[in-house]
């Protein structure tokens, strides 16, 4: 049964601007090492980072988590079939346990300009 859902859209130009302005500081504050390594090896790296950032925002939205946002506690990965998966760490993982969330479904898409993610908690 669906407990909650979230959707987010990110302007990839903003991702490029933040990386140009803040460099590794921005990347390390918002993404895991694996997310950075995967995305930054791509020609269209801002689209991949944008999709991951959108997924993180969609998770916070689905949790109704407005107090603070620790983006590195949400990690987007590819499973063994190449589909996106999501892992919650730390305090966010505890919140999922308290809400009895058993499964998280995620969908990502991106174009040159925008990245979109949707998340469903069951």
From TrEMBL:
<keyword id="KW-0444">Lipid biosynthesis</keyword>
<dbReference type="InterPro" id="IPR002582">
    <property type="entry name" value="ACPS"/>
</dbReference>
<keyword id="KW-0479">Metal-binding</keyword>
<keyword id="KW-0443">Lipid metabolism</keyword>
<protein>
    <submittedName>
        <fullName>Holo-[acyl-carrier-protein] synthase</fullName>
        <ecNumber>2.7.8.7</ecNumber>
    </submittedName>
</protein>
<dbReference type="GO" id="GO:0008897">
    <property type="term" value="F:holo-[acyl-carrier-protein] synthase activity"/>
</dbReference>
<keyword id="KW-0808">Transferase</keyword>
<keyword id="KW-0460">Magnesium</keyword>
<dbReference type="GO" id="GO:0006633">
    <property type="term" value="P:fatty acid biosynthetic process"/>
</dbReference>
<feature type="domain" description="4'-phosphopantetheinyl transferase">
    <location>
        <begin position="5"/>
        <end position="94"/>
    </location>
</feature>
<dbReference type="InterPro" id="IPR008278">
    <property type="entry name" value="4-PPantetheinyl_Trfase_dom"/>
</dbReference>
<keyword id="KW-0275">Fatty acid biosynthesis</keyword>
<dbReference type="GO" id="GO:0000287">
    <property type="term" value="F:magnesium ion binding"/>
</dbReference>
<dbReference type="InterPro" id="IPR004568">
    <property type="entry name" value="Ppantetheine-prot_Trfase_dom"/>
</dbReference>
<keyword id="KW-0276">Fatty acid metabolism</keyword>
<dbReference type="InterPro" id="IPR037143">
    <property type="entry name" value="4-PPantetheinyl_Trfase_dom_sf"/>
</dbReference>
<dbReference type="Pfam" id="PF01648">
    <property type="entry name" value="ACPS"/>
</dbReference>
């Amino acid at each position: 049964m669906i407990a909650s859902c979230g959707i987010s859209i990110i302007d990839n130009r903003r991702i490029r601007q933040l990386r140009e302005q803040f460099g590794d500081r921005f990347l390390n504050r918002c993404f895991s090492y694996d997310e950075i390594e995967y995305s930054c090896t791509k020609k269209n790296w801002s689209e991949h980072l944008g999709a991951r950032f959108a997924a993180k925002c969609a998770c916070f939205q689905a949790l109704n988590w407005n107090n603070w946002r620790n983006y590195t506690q949400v990690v987007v990965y590819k499973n063994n079939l190449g589909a996106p998966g999501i892992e919650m760490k730390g305090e966010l993982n505890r919140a999922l346990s308290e809400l009895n969330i058993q499964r998280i479904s995620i969908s990502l898409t991106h174009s040159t300009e925008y990245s979109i993610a949707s998340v469903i908690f069951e």
